[in-house]
Specification:
The complex is a heterodimer of chains A (about 140) and B (about 375). Chain A has a domain of about 55 residues. Chain A has three helices and no strands. Chain A has about 140 residues and is an all-alpha fold. The longest helix of chain A has about 60 residues. Chain B is an alpha/beta fold and about 375 residues long. Chain B has two domains: about 220 residues, Glycogen Phosphorylase B (Rossmann fold, 3-Layer(aba) Sandwich); about 150 residues, Rossmann fold. Chain B has 14 helices and 14 strands. In chain B, the strands form two sheets. In chain B, strands 3-4-2-1-5-6-7-8 form an eight-stranded mixed beta sheet, sandwiched between helices. A six-stranded parallel beta sheet of chain B has the order 11-10-9-12-13-14, with helices on both faces. Chain B is globular, with a radius of gyration of 21 Å. Classes of the chains: A mainly alpha (about 140), B alpha/beta (about 375). At the A-B interface, helix 1 and helix 3 of A face helix 2, helix 3, helix 4, helix 5 and helix 6 of B.
Chain lengths: ~140, ~375
């Protein structure tokens, strides 16, 4: 249906002319996980690691895990003991969380960096594929 | 000036941010004695693009609205390519053209526009992501001012989208962050650009006096979609409840991504304006956890009601609003979220000050007279250059 419309043809011509004459600089999306490319060869291991990292990075457990000991049920002393243990655990958790928060920031930046690098690699691989195709075409006997 | 506002869907029943902005912009421009025609489709729903409104010209709140039927929409192909785009953040050039072609279009609108574009001083087209808006902008790019409503999303990185931005006569952004995103992240050179901003309604005293209730609640307004980062919000509210907090989350909106069936989640559905004002007056804060926004009119709505806001610190636009206004707090981790809630609940004076700061920021930057003034200045310098 589109093809029969003169204005639509004009729109498509304008787009084609703009695509042919205006070279845009590269824009790299800040991808968290770039996804496996469907159109170019890729390193299976790289994406397997990225997928595992994507699942593991947010999974920090920062909650207080305080199991009951066999002394917890003692009358009077039990609750006091449990309270003391909770206080000690909270102190430990406070310092662990501080370190963890710092590590999480580091992880996040590293993750963003790997994501960007992978996206750039994908684009470069597409360029290589296109250049190789051109080279093959140029080396055809008809072009010699 | 004689202006055309071209937007794929238009009407009071259409609730999207760009569509609401287009409607208010048209009404305010008419009130400011400009001649404005809205060019739009007969569709109401952006999934089906079914023609619902009658074709032809009507007057809606003193704005002339010209409706054209949707003549083509290849939904299966469009959905397939859109899914691929979202998964890979990229499409090949032929796929991009196929994506554009498969989307919703009105050939009758394009034909009429090709004949009449020269009658207008400028064609204001929005938002960039709609295929109908993209095609309309290509009809007369030199006459077109694109109001893209850009997000950091896969569609923005398409060569076709970036190319369109470089080919139109001018681009108006809603926030400085959106402008920075286009220039830096999308890495494009625009012909002429400016920051327009947006506004919600006439600036007036809060309709309902502020009175945060007990037990306290956070208010979220808008469509319930996973893309709005509601999963994180539901998780954080659940964790607060597990820790014994009396805080509830009130959701004024509807959509597919509903909260868990728990007493600390209250789903109100879409609410009338009076109920929304009452909810804002009683809320501890308006919460907007979305990571991708081009403006967030809902923050201005909260600030007009002197309600502080809570936003995600990784959303440049909403975090930018909060930093500039001091009208709320930003969070990313659960600790930051729970600390922010604690501060809002235990320091009511600070919370009230944040609400007042937000209102003052809105008054200084985002009222309709300011927006119309900016647009007129931009158009005058554009038409005389």
């Amino acid at each position: 249906m589109h093809e029969t419309q003169p204005v639509w043809q004009k729109i498509q011509e304008r787009i084609d002319v703009a695509l042919a004459h205006h070279q845009l600089d590269t824009a790299v999306p800040p991808v968290v996980f770039p996804g496996k490319p469907a159109d170019i060869p890729y390193d299976i291991e790289l994406y397997a690691h990225m997928q595992q990292a994507a699942q593991a990075i947010p999974a920090f457990d920062r909650e207080l895990l305080l199991s009951e000991s066999r002394w917890s049920h003692l009358p009077i002393a039990g609750p006091l003991l449990q309270k003391g243990r909770r206080a000690l655990h909270s102190i430990a958790l406070f310092y662990a969380n501080r370190t963890l928060q710092h590590q999480q920031t580091v992880n996040w930046h590293l993750w963003e960096a790997v994501g960007r690098l992978t996206a750039v690699t994908q684009q470069q691989q597409r360029h290589i594929e296109a250049l190789q195709a051109q080279l093959t075409a140029l080396n055809q006997p008809d072009n010699q | 000036m004689k202006l055309a506002i071209i937007t794929p869907r238009f009407g009071e029943a259409i609730l999207g941010g760009a569509e609401t902005f287009a409607r208010h912009l048209a009404e305010k421009l008419v009130a400011d004695h400009h001649q404005v025609h809205v060019w739009t489709s007969c569709a109401q729903d952006y999934y089906s693009w079914e023609n619902v409104y009658p074709e032809g010209s009507t007057i809606l709140n003193q704005v002339t609205v010209r409706r054209f039927p949707i003549t083509s929409y290849n939904q299966p192909h469009f959905s397939k390519l859109s899914q691929k785009l979202v998964a890979h953040w990229a499409l090949g050039k032929d796929e991009q053209k196929a994506w554009l072609m498969a989307g919703a279009h009105s050939q009758l609108l394009y034909q009429a526009l090709a004949q009449e574009a020269s009658d207008y001083d400028a064609l204001l087209v929005l938002p960039y992501q709609a295929t109908l808006a993209q095609a309309a902008a290509w009809v007369a790019p030199e006459k077109t001012i694109l109001i893209p409503c850009l997000h950091n999303e896969p569609h923005a990185y398409l060569t076709l989208s970036r190319l369109l931005l470089t080919q139109v006569g001018g681009t108006l952004f809603l926030t400085p962050e959106e402008q920075l995103f286009a220039n830096r992240q999308l890495n494009i050179k625009l012909k002429r650009q400016g920051v327009l901003g947006a506004a919600v309604s006439d600036f007036a005293a809060p309709l309902v006096p502020r009175n945060p209730t007990k037990p306290p609640y956070l208010l979220a307004i808008g469509r319930l979609e996973a893309g709005k980062n509601l999963g994180l919000l539901y998780d954080y509210v659940q964790r607060l409840a597990d820790e014994g907090s009396p805080l509830t989350l009130v959701l004024a909106g509807d959509g597919p991504y509903k909260p868990p069936h728990q007493p600390h989640f209250q789903l109100h559905g879409f609410v009338a304006e009076a109920e929304k004002q009452a909810l804002l007056a009683g809320a501890t804060a308006l919460i907007h956890p979305s990571l991708n926004e081009s403006f967030s009119l809902v923050l201005l709505e909260a600030w007009l009601a002197e309600c502080p806001v809570l936003v995600h610190s990784q959303c440049p636009v909403t975090a930018g609003h909060v930093t500039r206004s001091q009208g709320g707090l930003a969070f990313a981790t659960f600790n930051e979220f729970s600390t922010a809630i604690k501060q809002l609940l235990t320091e009511p004076e600070t919370a009230a000050k944040m609400g007042a700061n937000g209102r003052s920021y809105t008054a200084q930057n985002y009222t309709w007279p300011l927006i119309i003034g900016r647009l007129e200045k931009f158009l005058q310098s554009w038409t005389t250059s």
